[in-house]
Design goal:
The complex is a heterotetramer of chains A (175), B (99), C (669) and D (335). With 175 residues, chain A is mainly α. In chain A, helix 1 packs antiparallel against helix 2. With 99 residues, chain B is mostly helical. Chain B has three helices and no strands. Chain B starts with a helix and ends in a 15-residue tail after the last helix. Chain C is an all-alpha fold and 669 residues long. Helix content of chain C is 72%, strand content 3%. Classes of the chains: A mainly alpha (175), B mainly alpha (99), C mainly alpha (669), D mainly alpha (335). At the A-B interface, helix 1, helix 2, helix 3, helix 4 and helix 5 of A face helix 1, helix 2 and helix 3 of B.
């Protein structure tokens, strides 16, 4: 059962990821990423990270990707042939990516981590990955990280408004 | 399912994202590929968190989620600003960083 | 409601008041800020009474409550709760602070009425009360430091309240800088406590301290001395006292609340709060007592000669706090706290009266120009006399019971403490002298022009205001001193603020009649449970003897004052001629400002100058230009890599990552 | 028999066959309630507007919804030339899928006779609701975009902005309840209302939730995405036949879901006087009562202007909801 769920999720996630890279129209790429994220959330569930699975969908699919959709629709579907990139990068890119994958896989498989071949400990607490547990950690041990992240978010919001905001007189600035 | 599978999946997703950044020119798609890489990283962290039976990793992923949201907001703000100023949406055309 | 909930409410109301006024000050109609501010403090006072009742309903051995909202931060072994600690001492301070603050708020609603910064004033004032209460209720040293620093900021903001006056801003900065020196002492003390004991909560620290430290071990002495640095700076004791007199640049209610009744007593409270540490370090406790005595003498002499009305009272504040330090230094904690309370009453009262007088004089604070105000300001004059009587320790006033209790204690301890006690009596004599110097010089006699105008027309002088310190005209835009002046005789709000304090200054002493009531001592007993020093109590007969001594000295002092300034006004002048060097010393405040200037400011400036002329151009400049040229030449080498192609950069990064992982793989296997 | 999925902690799990049965029952019940609501809306609107409403098909027009469905089913399915193949067909299905999936967490009663009267009870209950709410948005947006029509696209963009804006207020309004109940699980939240329904202490939250709920379901006075005077019919302009029917259906299902969540969070869910077998009836009754309010409001209030809608959401609802959360948090800590 778990295997079926994992492979279904993995197939969906990989398919989504490939579609993001390969589809010509950015709008479709965005949709593909949504599909990818939904499947990935399923895999999160398998890892017993329920809160993050829900957060992933609410935050990513529900909010972040909506902004993408907006922008993709706003700037219009500029189709580009997927592979007529820089002639050197066209071949170089996939090779480098493959090398990266192989290398990390070797590193993971060959690592001396004991737990890596297991499914993880079975005696984890009942509230592992529930909102309550994550929330408690967030406000206890990781308060500073939490507050730093919220400041970062605020900065990003301000930055976005400054970047995308319409200037009062729309003067042509030298570019 | 042993944790290894999850990690390999994370590696694959990460590699796809990295490859995407190298071959695509549209800044929106490049940002999407960054999201791919970030979520692959999140998956890896979650796998390790499950492997150790320690929930700390989940908080870390949550923070990554926030960081990703910030990155998107700024990145897309840049894209919109580029579009407004009639700059072609092609990262190969924007070479102002040339030394 | 539990005791702890009441105590949290005590903190909540002033904070809420401050925030409501601060955020809404543009929208608040006219003078609502005063009402909101006063109500907030009034509610805090009521909550304080709730805390008191809650605490009294407990049996005396369990009269302490620690409550924590949440753990604020945990780093390593350090766990800091947002927690408060409520015990009789804290409640005592809460009641004094909120009670006096409430009356002064009401007074201010009238006094500041024509000030442009009315809302701002009340926001600051509420914030100050919140900070002070935080300091008092803090359950650990970290929260204490936060409250401590907030209080320092509030003091700075209020001293510099009229920010267009250069003297006010300078005074604010001076106060702030000296307070920060004290803060550093406090922070270092907390760090040392944490290093030695590993905890910062009061209860835990006091439990652990006797087990870890032996008596007079250098660490505990160092901790206590550092605490004292903080306490001295906040309480304006030698040598950190210079800011207090300058702080009189703030509005008079501020002087009354912060620089007489509450904030400056924080140091005394700190020593009383941390008494278990001080009893482990008698050496440091002695330092506190000695510095207190020296301060009270020095401040007394200065108060005898300066002519600025508010500064005289300010120096007398320093001197009275000296008594309190003497008390807590020798272990007479409840006597010290009792004096803190009565002092808050009569000193706040004196400042309020001074505010009323200054208003009549159109902001001239020089007592040489004041004459015959008794007839013009009957109510204010009565309050001034009551305050002065209490200050000089006239029999049966509150000051008599409280100050002389401290001196009894010192006498009873015997040994070299007797010297401290005698010095204290000398100080008491001076206190009576300068207190009635004010009274006798400004109340009787032929009215000065301003007083005459008031008597004849019922108007207060609204002269063109000039800053007496530097002759600059005042700026009405930021308030100073308000377009109109308000005096107690004409405004019910000010009278309402002063009258209860007048009554309390007269009768509060009966709370602590030796052998009869002793309410304060009994109430505070649970806090000082287990203290060896607090147990050394002079017997009732000795206590009454001491009170008699004090009474006689006060009466004699007042009599001398009468001779000097009413009967034979020539005497002070001839004394001044005869002891000219001494007079110069006093009038220049013992040259402390000059001393600090020479010892600290001048060398720092010289060092800065040296850095500017030598270090900056050669050392720093050399490094900087060297670095830049290095970077520039290195940049030239790699410039070609900067194609500006984002994807080229990205691929380089990926390749780099691959290389690093590969290296790790090959090396680690 | 397959053990319960290890994927999520569920507070209570039935045997698989019961799960399947339950899901069928819930689906069928809601499926049959929707036409009732539809009919009720038309009849009630008629009454509100001083006319009869449908009264031709069947007694008192009671068979009107069936007739409508029959009509929609028998229409020719077609695709405009400008539309995007694939997405155009998928979009309505996506909408209805998200709506149906949300039904799973609505509790119609506690565990009775070994069977929980709900689909599943997950500890992330409310988040589940928001997660699928987020997905429902893609149904609208894709439909609008894939139609290849300006009106559709504008309607879709409007609905996207509106959904995002009001989802914030909605989430914040529910936080107060979550704080008081101390749980995200809907079943736990209902149980926490044994003493007092949360509508009393959380009246502000309830009002915000209802306002945001109107916006989330694109109902009057927030029906800008399909404002017929401006946008023809918004994102569903180019749709016909049962595809349009799906959108229509999903919209009413969303109304029922919002009503269900509101009754669960604020109105004590299944709780009511009488024996425990009445629980599902109570729940349904509460849902229908709130649905009635939806219809009532539609007949009463005029539509907002778009900028009013946005500034109301961001400048009034969200600060108000935040304040509500803050006050609740303080009170929960103090008590």
């Amino acid at each position: 059962m778990v295997e079926i769920a994992f492979f279904a999720g993995a197939a969906g996630a990989i398919g989504g990821a490939l579609a993001v890279v390969l589809l010509k129209n950015p709008f479709y790429s965005v949709l593909a990423l949504v599909v990818h994220l939904v499947f990935l959330a399923g895999i999160f569930l398998l890892l017993r990270a329920q809160f993050l699975a829900a957060a992933q969908i609410v935050v990513y699919a529900g909010a972040v990707m909506v902004i993408y959709v907006f922008v993709a629709a706003y700037v219009g579907g500029i189709e580009e042939p997927a592979f007529d990139a820089h002639p050197r990068l066209r071949i170089f890119g996939p090779i480098v990516a493959a090398a990266l994958f192989i290398e990390i896989s070797i590193a993971v498989a060959g690592s001396a981590l004991v737990g890596i071949g297991t499914e993880g400990p079975q005696d984890i607490p009942d509230d592992f990955g529930t909102p309550a547990a994550v929330g408690r950690m967030l406000l206890d041990d990781f308060l500073i990280a939490f507050e730093a992240a919220s400041i970062l978010l605020l900065l990003a919001a301000v930055a976005a408004i400054v970047l995308a905001g319409r200037r009062g007189s729309q003067t042509q600035e030298g570019t | 399912m042993s944790i290894e599978w999850y990690l390999v999946l994370a590696a694959l997703l990460f590699a796809i994202g990295a490859g995407g950044i190298l071959v695509r020119r549209n800044p929106v798609v490049i940002l999407l590929c960054l999201e791919l890489m970030l979520s692959a990283g999140a998956l890896a962290i979650l796998s390790f968190s499950r492997m150790l039976g320690d929930g700390d990793g989940q908080v870390f992923v949550l923070i990554v989620l926030v960081v990703a949201a910030c990155e998107v907001v700024v990145g897309l703000g840049l894209v919109v600003a580029m579009f407004r100023r009639r700059i072609p949406l092609d990262v190969d055309e924007t070479t102002e960083l040339r030394g | 409601m539990t005791t702890a909930s009441w105590a949290w409410l005590v903190l909540l109301f002033p904070l809420l008041g401050s925030m409501v006024i601060a955020f809404g000050f543009r929208r608040l109609p006219d003078r609502t800020a005063g009402i909101i501010g006063s109500t907030a403090i009034g509610l805090a006072f009521i909550a304080g009474i709730g805390t008191l009742l809650g605490l009294l309903s407990e049996p005396s051995e369990s009269r302490h409550v620690a409550s924590s909202l949440w753990e604020y931060a945990g780093v390593g072994d350090l766990r800091v709760d947002l927690g408060i600690f409520v015990d009789p001492l804290a409640v005592f301070m809460v009641l004094v602070v909120t009670g006096v603050s409430f009356l002064i708020h009401v007074y201010s609603t009238a006094y500041m009425e024509s000030d442009q910064g009315y809302s701002r004033f009340f926001s600051y004032l509420n914030f100050f009360v919140f900070s002070m209460l935080l300091l008092v209720l803090a359950g650990n040293f970290v929260l204490l430091i936060i409250g401590w620093a907030f209080v320092g900021f509030a003091s700075y903001a209020l001293i510099s309240f009229w920010y267009r006056r250069t003297t006010a801003t300078a005074a604010g900065m001076k106060a702030f800088v000296i307070n920060v020196v004290g803060d550093i002492g406090l922070v270092l003390a907390a760090i040392l406590i944490f290093r030695e004991l590993g905890v910062l909560d009061y209860e835990a620290v006091f439990d652990a301290a006797p087990k870890v430290f032996s008596t007079d071990q250098w660490t505990v002495v160092a901790i206590c001395l550092l605490l004292l640095v903080g306490a001295f700076a906040k309480s304006a004791q030698l040598p950190f006292h210079t800011w207090l007199a300058d702080a009189m640049e703030g509005p008079t209610p501020v002087s009354s609340l912060i620089h007489a009744a509450t904030m400056v007593t924080a140091g005394v409270y700190l020593v009383a709060r941390t008494w278990p540490l001080f009893e482990l370090a008698p050496a440091a406790a002695n330092v506190a007592a000695i510095v207190g005595v020296v301060t009270l003498l020095v401040a007394g002499t200065i108060a005898l000669v300066v002519t600025d009305l508010k500064r005289i009272i300010a120096y007398s504040t320093m001197s009275q706090i000296g008594y309190m330090f003497l008390a807590v230094g020798i272990g007479a904690y409840s006597a010290g706290m009792f004096h803190l309370m009565t002092h808050a009453f009569f000193k706040a009262l004196l400042f309020m009266a001074a505010g009323s007088i200054i208003a009549v004089m159109a902001n001239d604070q020089n007592i040489d120009r004041m004459r015959g105000l008794g007839k013009a300001l009957p109510f204010t004059a009565a309050m001034l006399v009551i305050g002065s009587l209490a200050l000089s320790g006239f029999p049966f006033t509150s000051g008599w019971f409280s100050k002389d209790e401290i001196l009894d204690f010192a006498l009873y301890r015997g040994g070299w403490y007797t010297i401290l006690a005698i010095a204290g009596y000398v100080g008491a004599f001076m206190t009576a002298l300068y207190a009635f110097r004010i009274v006798f010089r400004i109340l009787p006699g032929r009215p000065c022009p301003e007083a005459e105008e008031l008597i004849e027309t019922g108007h207060v002088a609204h002269g063109e205001a000039v800053n007496p310190a530097n002759g600059q005209p005042e700026d009405y835009e930021v308030g100073y001193p308000g377009k109109e002046h308000h005096i107690a005789e004409q405004s019910p709000g000010m009278r309402f603020g002063m009258l209860p304090l007048g009554v309390l200054a007269l009768i509060a002493g009966f709370l602590q009649v030796p052998g009869v009531t002793e309410v304060v001592t009994k109430f505070l007993e649970p806090t000082f449970e287990g203290s060896s020093l607090a147990a050394i109590h002079p017997p009732v007969s000795k206590a009454w003897l001491g009170l008699l001594n004090g009474g006689v000295i006060a009466v004699v002092g007042i009599a001398f004052a009468w001779v000097f300034w009413v009967r034979r006004p020539a005497i002070p002048g001839s004394l001044r001629q005869k002891f000219h060097p001494l007079y110069e010393l006093f009038v220049h405040k013992w040259y402390f400002d000059e001393l600090i200037h020479a010892v600290i400011v001048r060398p720092v400036l010289a060092f800065g100058d040296f850095c500017n002329r030598v270090v900056e151009p050669f050392v720093v400049g050399g490094i900087v230009t060297g670095t830049t040229s290095l970077v520039r030449s290195a940049g030239a080498l790699v410039r070609d890599l900067q194609s500006g192609m984002i994807r080229a950069y990205a691929s380089l990064m990926v390749v780099g990552a691959i290389a690093v992982v590969l290296f790790l793989l090959l090396r680690g296997g | 028999m397959i053990p319960a999925l290890p994927i999520a902690d569920t507070n209570f799990v039935d045997a698989t066959w019961i799960l399947i049965l339950k899901s069928l029952v819930i689906f069928v019940v809601i499926l049959s309630v929707v036409p009732v609501v539809l009919l009720a809306e038309r009849k009630l609107l008629g009454r509100f507007q001083n006319r009869y409403g449908p009264n031709r098909v069947g007694p008192y027009g009671s068979l009107q919804p069936l007739a409508d469905v029959g009509k929609l089913l028998s229409k020719q399915g077609f695709r405009p030339t400008g539309a995007v193949p694939g997405l155009y067909e998928v979009a309505p299905a996506l909408t209805i899928l998200a709506a149906v999936l949300t039904l799973a967490i609505l509790p119609f009663g506690d565990v009775q006779g070994g069977v929980g009267l709900y689909g599943i009870d997950v500890p992330i209950g409310i988040l589940y609701f928001f997660a699928f709410g987020a997905l429902a948005f893609y149904g609208l947006l894709l439909g609008g975009w894939a139609s290849g029509s300006k009106y559709s696209f504008l309607g879709a963009m409007r609905s996207a902005a509106q959904l995002i804006s009001y989802e914030m207020a909605m989430g914040l309004s529910l936080l107060g309840v979550v704080l008081m109940a101390g749980s995200l699980s809907l079943v736990e939240i209902v149980k926490a209302q044994g003493e007092i329904w949360f509508i009393v202490p959380q009246i502000v939250g309830f009002l915000i939730f209802m306002v945001a709920g109107f916006a989330e379901t694109n109902r009057a006075p927030f029906d800008l995405p399909e404002a017929d005077a401006e946008l023809v019919a918004g994102y569903s302009t180019e749709y016909g036949g049962m595809r349009f029917g799906s959108y229509f259906f999903a919209e009413y299902m969303e109304i029922l879901i919002i009503s269900g969540i509101a009754s669960t969070m604020f109105l004590g869910g299944w709780m009511g006087p009488g024996p425990s077998w009445l629980d599902p009836i109570w729940m349904l009754a509460k849902m229908l009562a709130i649905t009635f309010i939806f219809i009532w409001i539609r007949a009463t209030l005029p539509r907002f202007r778009y900028d009013q809608l946005m500034s109301f959401g961001w400048k009034v609802l969200i600060p108000l909801a935040t304040l509500n959360v803050l006050v609740t948090a303080v009170l929960v800590v103090v008590w």
